Amino acid sequence: MNKTIALECRGITKTFGRVVANRNCDLDVYEGEILAILGENGSGKTTLMNMVAGIYFPDEGQIFVKGEEVVIASPRDAFAHKIGMIHQHFKLVDVFTACENIALGVEDKGRFKLAEVRKKVIEITQRYGFIIDPDKRVAEMSVSEKQTVEILKVLYRGADILILDEPTAVLTPQETEKLFAVLRRMREDGKSVIIITHKMHEVLSISDRVAVLRKGEHIGTVNTAETDASALTEMMMGVKVELNIQRSQPRDPQERLTVKNLTSVNPEGRPMLADVSFTAYSGEILGIAGIAGSGQRELLEAIAGLHSLTGGEITYVNPKDGHVENLRNKIPIQIRDLGVRLSFVPEDRLGMGLVGNMDIVDNMMLRSYSKGKGMFLHRKEPRDLAQTIIEDLQVVTPGASTPVRQLSGGNVQKVLVGREIAAAPSVLMAAYPVRGLDVNASYTIYNLLNRQKESGVAVIFVGEDLDVLMELCDRILVINAGRVTGIVDGRTAQKDEIGLLMTKSHDANETEAGEGA
Amino acid sequence: MAKTETKKHTPLLHIVKRDQGSLTWYNRLLVRGIAILAALLVAGVLITLLTGKNPIQVYGSMVSGVFGSPRRIWNMLQGLAMLLCVSLAVTPAFKMKFWNIGAEGQVLISGLACVATMMFLGDKMPTVVLLLVMTAASVLAGMIWAVLPAVFKAYWNTNETLFTLMMNYVATQLVAYFLKVFVKDGSGVLTPMPQYGLPVLGNQAYLLNILLVALLTVLVYVYLKYSKQGYEIAVVGESENTARYIGINVKKVIIRTLLVSGAMCGLAGLLLVGGTNHTISTTTVGGRGFTAIMVSWLAKFNPLYMVLTSFLVIFLEKGAQQVSTDFRISSSISDIITGIILLFIIGCEFFLQYRVVMRKNRKENA
Amino acid sequence: MLAFLVSAIRLGMTFLLGSTGETITEKSGHLNLGIPGVMCVGAACGCYAEYMYFTAVGSNIIPLLAVVIPLLAALLGGALMGLLFSFLTVTLRANQNVTGLAITTLGVGMSEYIIDEASTIFTKGSKYFTASLPFADDLGWFGELFLDYGVFVYLALIIAVSTTYVLNRTRVGLHLRAVGENPATADAAGINVSRYRYVATCVGCGIAGLGGLSFIMDYLNGNWEYCVDAIGWLAIALVIFTVWKPNLAIIGSIVFGALYVASSYIVGVSFAGKELFKMLPYIVTILVLVVTSMRSKKNQPPAALGLPYFREER
Fold it and tell me: Given this model, what pLDDT does residue A505 score?
């Protein structure tokens, strides 16, 4: 078949301050094909596509659309070349209806009539089988409805090149299948679809070709039919990495933290956690696996006392005297005052765990500033702690008085984890602690967690890489849509078993989906 | 053809955020210095154009208006102290990213409380007790005026900028009302009551004010930098999520900080009314509540820098007043010059935070 | 009673122009606290242009020009202040609140300077602005209440109604609201956020400038008073009071005007009590602000109000 190139990137380089996001990237997409862009977190997939979509402007390099060199300085330019991107974080105006959002930025000829937009939207939804109320306000929509609006936006503009940034991360398996059906249909229409993902099975099931990015560089593009998961993983990871994370048998596991029938809703009243129960034991690492946004963050934040619960109990057994404390609906300070030694490494490091504009010393103080007598701060201890962490964890920084915002991601995480461990916890919770970190920094973190486990701490580890979870954790709890779908042994569990649990729908959801279809 | 056309559109300049600390302190000083010089130059040119006078003469007149005589220096110091006092008062709230633009009203209402105390209790109690009651009344009034918007902000996230702004005018109208009630002749002008004022130190009417404000500057500096409450303010201002994460009660901090802020506004009201004017009018605060926000913001909320920024503003104000007297032009020239200089300094912050970079040539290989 | 309503409406139109201007600006996400200064400048520029025109032509005054020249001058003066505000907040990314306050300082100073250079009496010019339809007086109370107004009342109404139309019914309005609600989304949709903010701010400030002029030329019958900025703050309050809706502002402005002038018309209000009456608009505004924030969801300020937007930051 004689295919023409729809989009070509040549030698694209983009830096943010000192961070190189993309270096000399080449990429091409044909008409009527689905190209998957595969890469780890932080490999520059999204940044590269953002340059094609006009969100960022490349420092160097050229972009060609249908063989013509183009300059895409703004999203408007991208639309002009019929390029549309569906971002991972939805770009919708909450107070607008679906229709108003879709009409946004479209410069049709003639007078603006919302009724006509509405007609055209309904036409498209019927053609592709979307189910959406065009007059519903986005603020009242579910996640998958919002994604539908995003896709409609691009289709409404008649894009020929569609870029989807991790579209399935927020979808149920059924919704994913529907989406893929739509994408295949677009391919048949001769459109080019670029799908950014790090899920191997999706790459293999949907794409015609795969472009692999690693650390901001384009490693190569291969035909999906001529490759397999292990070859792609090798391209993605570089030299094939044997994870080789050491794992010891838990010693003398004792009940430390018990969560029973935990239920919570978000501020909009939608359920986030439903009937979650588990126990974390001392001297073991309990992994938590699940599709992004399944309630992992809410679970840890609920335990840490950042959310109020609608139901359930959280109990903590004090290792010193065996005293049992109920943590339900207590704020972090109250939890600490009970003598509960609970440390928490949140997912959002600079937005929650640390204050970016403060230096390392002041960040050390976040946990301890209220200690000590009088109304004044005691900076000596945190200063010493900062120095210890810088030395022990080899934090690369000009000094302890450098604002943490200026450190690299790995060093930021070392500062945060270091502080949480220094509090001598008996329960340590870490949400995605290696996200965005390079291999070396990741191993530093794994080793730190392992050492905590060996010293008798109950570690709760939320991860996204199943291989890591299976090599690091003693038990793995799988969560989906706010419900625990299973707890498996980390040593014996099979990957596909966990994968199934991750997408296993609860009975109620199944009937709901059945009705919808 | 399409090619050449699109090439034109390549943005030549792009803007990059500077790393903090990539500019040394003297570079920062230099940029600000250049901004101030440029602004002075523009202001000088403007005055020259308007008056036809030699700009050197104009600047000379400004300097003499500020430093020309001991009385002028005292006036300048007094102006500096008052502006600095209000600037210090708004700072804790601003550091917490609580946009309190109601200092004008908070100071004015405490001035009203002070003047009412002087009028009705002045002859009924011994001086020491009177001074205490005056202080308490002023501080309390300032606190009430500041804490109202804070409570609504803390519990219902009511927009504090607009709330505090409205409170200014409620205070102004209250003062106007009470002036008409207090003053029986209906003129609305209250005769000063120096006999009930704050004590005068060393025969210098303004010395007490100046000393108190100097002390307050140090106190606020220490409070923000070394106290636990100051640390909480900084954390809440930087990230409410972090504050929740470490268990800071954000509502409590917002309310407490505004009580502190309002109390300092109360002190400013006390010094203005009890220590300076010994009377009140609707213009007693004279826009200091607004100017203070700029002073505090330009000093990056650092009380020590605020001494410099408020000096700059007062220098311009007093200097321009002298210019307008010397060259018989409208006294409003002082507002114009202050406005221009503030805008220049506000604008120059851009160059401290961002770098403008020429885009590298794109590769020419086809 | 009739005189009271007429007076409320005439003053109300000043508020209406000011608040419509600020609404347009705020819809773009700019909280422009410089509006009081902008209204001062608008008023001063308009008056100065009138003064210049009269000086230039002597007694050969063409009524149309005597109205149009000051209007254009006020529009231009306001818009230039808006340009300055936008340049600082959009291009130089300065803080909106601080910039707005500095603009107010500058604007008040400039207007006073301009007026001191010219004259504080513009009664001659004012009569061209307050000239009403010739048959209005023949229609009794109906004519007096509904028709007996100068050009500003009609101008303000037209601007407020057309602003409502543009905001809610046109593409430009949709885009503008998106910019104020969620600039990142608007940007991703290909809307030039900076341009919308520049244009909205300049147009809004231009309209607010007209409001300043209407206060002097219409309500005060051409006698300059140094209190245009106080009116400007009330215009900002009116924006909140009418929950960012210019059509509601038509009613709201008359209510504000009524509250402001009520003291002079209500019998039995003491000399001092008048001052309390003048406090009402502010108190009512605070109540509206509090109630809307408690009730949430609808009638909220634009979500991105007061927030800067820079694309390439990460």
Answer: 57
